[in-house]
Design brief:
With 714 residues, the protein is mainly α. 68% of the residues lie in helices and 1% in strands. Helix 9 crosses helix 10. The protein is globular, with a radius of gyration of 36 Å.
Length: 714
C-alpha cells in the first residue's frame, strides 16, 4: 500500500498552503549511511537478545551445586532462570531498540557471562571453593549488584513486555535488590575446620568429629564423591596450579577419604544425609501454599487429585477416606467417586522448587512409590540384544527390534527403566528420520512409552530428540503424527521442556494436526498445545500459527467432540495480548455466549474466563454492548448462582463490569435526552420569537396602510 504524500514545512516553519492542483514534493529518502546505521542497530539488538537467551540457557543447564555455596548458587541460578520469559518476548519486540536499552542489555550480558563462570566453579573442587571463600562471596555480591543495576535500566514498555512477565521480572529485580543489600554469611565453622586440617602436619592426629563435619558439609560422603574431587585436584595440578598447594589439598582429601572408608558401610548415606538435611532446614525458605497438603499443611511428597479437582498428599487423603468420609475436605463437596489421580505436574513443580532452593526433593513412601526395581540380568541381556539389532544396517532387524522395544516399554515401569538405562534412547532418536514407515511408527511410539518414566524424559531431551519428533509430527504417517504429539505432551510435563519444545517449531505442526488430523490426533495435539501454552513465551507462537480460528471452528462443530479442549486452550490464550486480539478479531463473542447458555459446567467456566479478558481494555465497551445484545446478563446471573467456584467468580466479575457499562449507558442516554429536550425547547422558543417578530412586522405594515395620505395637500 502506497503511503500518502505529506506536505513539508515551508521556510517559515509552517505547512505549505497550496491549491489542490499543486504537487507536493516527497520527503527525500534516507541516505545509504543512515539505512546502514539503522540496520546495524537492529542487528545489534537482535544479536544482543539472542546472546542473552543463550546465556540463560547455559546457566539453566548448570545444576551441580553440591558444594558449600549450594544455597547461594541455587538462588542465583533460579533468579536468572526466571529472566527467560522476558528475553523470549524481547526477541519478538520492536526494533531498533533505543541506545539506553541496548546499553542496559549489554550490562546484563556482561553480568550473566560472569554469573555463568561463577556457577561453573560449582562443578570444581569443593575444597578449593571453601578455601577461596572471600573471593567467591565477593564475586557473588558484585554479580548480584550488577544484575540488579542492569534490570533497573530495562524499560518494559520499550521492549514490549507483557504484564504477566513484567510482574515476574519486577519480583526478580526486588529479590536481587534485597540480596545486594544483605550480605549472605559464609560458614565460618566449615572454613575453620578445613584450615585446621589443611595446616596440620601429615603425621598429626585429626579429631574424627572434624573429619565427619567436613565430609558432611562438603558433601564428600561417598567413594564416588571423593574420587571425583581427587580427579579435579589432579587436573588442577596438571593445568599449572602450584604443586605444593594441590599436594596439601590432596593430603586433606586423603584424610577425609580414609575416615569415610573406615566407618560403618552406612556412613555417609542415610544418616549423614538426614543430619545435613536437618541443618539445611533451619534456613529453608517458606513452602508455597500450593505445595502444601490442605490436610497436613506439609510439603507434598505424592500429590494426588480427587474427583473435585483438589490436590492432597496421598497418605492424608487415603486416611480421610478410610475413616468413612465421602466428601472433599477442602470444599466439603460430595465425592462422586474415590479415585486418586497422580498430579504429575505439581510433583514436577515441587521437585524443581526444592532443587532451586537447595533442598532434597521429597521422597514418596515405599508402598506408593512407582520407581521400578532394577531389571534382572536376563531382562537386561534381552534389551541389549534388541539394541544390537536396532543398531544394525538391516532394515528388517531395525523394524523388528523397534517393534519389540515398543511393546516392552508399554508393559511395565520396570521395562521402561531397564530400556532407558541400557542406552536405548539415543539409538531410537537416530532412527526418527528413517524413511521406513513402520520403523518410524515403532520408534516414536517406543519413545512415547519410555517417556512415561520420569528419568527417561531427561534422557530423551538431552539426546536431542525434539527436532526428530517434530520431523515425524510434520511428515510421518497419521499414527506416527498422533504418537509424536502425545510424546511432546508427555515431555512438556517438565516445565523446562516447554521452552525447548516451543523453540523447536513444534507448535505450528501441532496446530496443523489439530486442524486436519484424525480424531485421536486432534486430541493428542490439543493436549500438547494446552500444556505448551501454559508457558507465556509459547502463547504468541500458537496464535501466530493460526490456532484461534481452528479452536473456534471446533466449538461450532458439535460432532468434533473437542469443545472441552478448545475452550481450555482459548482460556489460556486470552490472557495473552496477541491471543486476545485474535479472539476478538474472529468474532468469537456469540459463540462464547452460546457455550455459557448450553455448555457443561466446565465449559461455561472457561467461556466466562475468555470473556473476562475480552471485556477488558480498549474494546471493553464494544464487547460488553455486543454481549448485552446476545442476552448474556441472565446467563451470567445463573452462572454466578449455580456454576463452579471459578465460574462463579468470572460471572460475578463480568456482571460488575456489565452493571457499570449499563449505568454509564443510562447516564449517557439521560444526558442525550436532556440535551434533546433542551434543544427542542430552544427551537420552540426561537420559533415563537420568529412568529412574534413576524406578527409585529405585519401590524406595522397595516398601521402604515391605514394612515391618511397628505400627498394631495401638497
Amino acid at each position: 500500500m502506497e503511503e500518502e504524500a505529506k506536505p513539508s514545512p515551508n521556510a517559515d516553519g509552517n505547512t505549505n498552503s497550496v491549491s489542490a492542483a499543486a504537487e507536493v514534493a516527497p520527503l527525500p529518502p534516507p541516505s545509504s549511511s543512515e539505512s546502514a546505521e539503522g540496520k546495524a542497530e537492529e542487528e545489534e539488538a537482535v544479536d544482543l537478545v539472542e546472546q542473552l537467551v543463550a546465556l540463560v540457557d547455559e546457566i539453566t543447564a548448570i545444576s551441580d551445586f553440591r558444594n558449600a555455596y549450594r544455597r547461594q548458587f541455587c538462588n542465583l541460578s533460579r533468579r536468572i532462570r526466571l529472566l527467560a520469559p522476558m528475553l523470549e518476548e524481547a526477541k519478538e519486540g520492536p526494533r531498533p531498540l533505543p541506545e539506553a536499552q541496548c546499553s542496559a542489555l549489554r550490562r546484563l550480558r556482561e553480568a550473566l557471562s560472569d554469573s555463568r563462570e561463577l556457577l561453573r566453579l560449582g562443578g570444581g573442587s569443593k575444597i578449593v571453593l571453601v578455601l577461596e571463600r572471600e573471593k567467591i562471596m565477593k564475586s557473588l555480591q558484585d554479580i548480584t549488584a550488577r544484575l540488579e543495576q542492569a534490570l533497573g535500566g530495562i524499560s518494559f514498555d520499550e521492549l514490549d513486555i507483557s504484564d504477566e512477565v513484567r510482574e515476574q521480572i519486577e519480583l526478580v529485580h526486588a529479590q536481587f535488590k534485597r540480596a545486594k543489600e544483605r550480605c549472605d554469611p559464609s560458614d565460618d565453622d566449615l572454613f575453620n575446620d578445613l584450615m585446621s586440617v589443611y595446616n596440620s602436619s601429615p603425621s598429626a592426629n585429626v579429631d574424627p568429629d572434624i573429619l565427619r563435619r567436613l565430609s558432611e558439609k562438603l558433601q564428600l560422603v561417598t567413594i564416588s564423591d571423593l574420587n571425583q574431587e581427587s580427579l579435579i585436584l589432579h587436573e588442577m595440578a596438571s593445568s599449572g596450579d602450584p604443586g605444593a598447594v594441590v599436594e596439601k589439598m590432596s593430603m586433606l582429601l586423603k584424610r577425609i577419604k580414609d575416615f569415610v572408608q573406615t566407618q560403618d558401610p552406612g556412613m555417609g548415606t542415610p544418616a549423614s544425609t538426614m543430619e545435613l538435611s536437618e541443618k539445611d532446614n533451619l534456613a529453608s525458605p517458606v513452602v508455597p501454599d500450593d505445595f502444601r497438603c490442605p490436610i497436613s499443611l506439609d510439603l507434598m511428597k505424592d500429590p494426588v487429585i480427587v474427583a473435585t479437582g483438589q490436590t492432597y498428599e496421598r497418605g492424608c487423603i487415603e486416611r480421610w477416606l478410610e475413616a468413612g468420609h465421602d466428601t472433599c475436605p477442602k470444599t466439603q463437596q460430595k465425592l462422586p467417586n474415590k479415585f486418586l489421580t497422580p498430579n504429575y505436574v505439581l510433583r514436577s513443580l515441587i521437585a524443581q522448587w526444592c532443587e532451586a532452593n537447595g533442598m532434597e526433593p521429597p521422597k514418596r513412601t515405599a508402598q506408593h512409590c512407582n520407581a521400578p526395581a532394577s531389571c534382572t540380568a536376563a531382562e537386561h541381556s534381552k534389551v541389549v540384544e534388541l539394541l544390537q539389532k536396532l543398531s544394525s544396517q538391516n532394515l528388517e532387524d531395525q523394524r523388528e527390534a523397534a517393534g519389540m522395544l515398543r511393546q516392552l516399554a508399554k508393559r511395565s515401569a520396570e521395562n521402561r527403566a531397564c530400556i532407558g538405562e541400557a542406552g536405548a534412547v539415543p539409538i531410537l532418536v537416530s532412527l526418527l528420520s528413517t524413511t521406513d514407515v513402520s520403523t518410524q511408527e515403532h520408534v516414536v511410539t517406543a519413545l512415547l512409552n519410555l517417556s512415561i518414566y520420569e528419568e527417561n524424559k531427561a534422557r530423551i531431551i538431552t539426546s536431542g530428540a525434539v527436532p526428530g519428533i517434530v520431523h515425524v509430527l510434520k511428515r510421518g504417517s497419521m499414527e506416527a503424527r498422533e504418537n509424536s504429539a502425545a510424546t511432546l505432551f508427555s515431555l512438556s510435563l517438565v516445565d523446562e521442556n516447554k521452552i525447548t519444545i516451543g523453540a523447536s517449531g513444534a507448535i505450528p505442526a501441532l496446530v496443523l494436526l489439530l486442524s486436519n488430523g484424525s480424531q485421536r490426533g486432534k486430541k493428542d495435539a490439543a493436549t500438547a498445545l494446552f500444556n505448551l501454552c501454559i508457558y507465556q513465551g509459547n502463547k504468541g507462537k500458537a496464535v501466530r500459527a493460526g490456532l484461534v480460528p481452528i479452536l473456534l471452528g471446533l466449538l461450532t462443530e458439535t460432532e468434533s467432540g473437542m469443545m472441552d479442549e478448545a475452550l481450555a486452550i482459548l482460556a489460556i490464550l486470552s490472557s495473552h495480548h496477541e491471543g486476545k486480539a485474535a479472539i476478538s478479531s474472529a468474532a468469537a463473542l456469540p459463540i462464547l455466549v452460546a457455550v455459557i447458555r448450553n455448555g457443561s459446567a466446565r465449559n461455561k467456566e472457561n467461556a466466562a474466563a475468555v470473556l473476562v479478558h475480552l471485556c477488558n481494555g480498549e474494546q471493553q465497551q464494544q464487547h460488553l454492548a455486543e454481549a448485552q445484545e446476545q442476552g448474556i446478563v441472565t446467563l451470567l446471573e445463573e452462572l454466578a448462582e449455580n456454576g463452579t467456584d471459578r465460574g462463579k467468580r468470572k460471572a460475578i466479575l463480568l456482571l460488575e463490569r456489565m452493571n457499570r457499562f449499563l449505568m454509564q449507558q443510562s447516564q449517557a442516554q439521560a444526558q442525550a435526552e436532556a440535551m434533546a429536550q433542551a434543544n427542542a425547547h430552544a427551537q420552540t422558543q426561537a420559533q415563537a420569537l420568529v412568529e412574534a417578530q413576524s406578527q409585529a412586522e405585519m401590524q406595522v405594515e397595516q398601521s402604515l396602510l391605514s394612515a391618511p395620505s397628505h400627498l394631495s395637500d401638497i
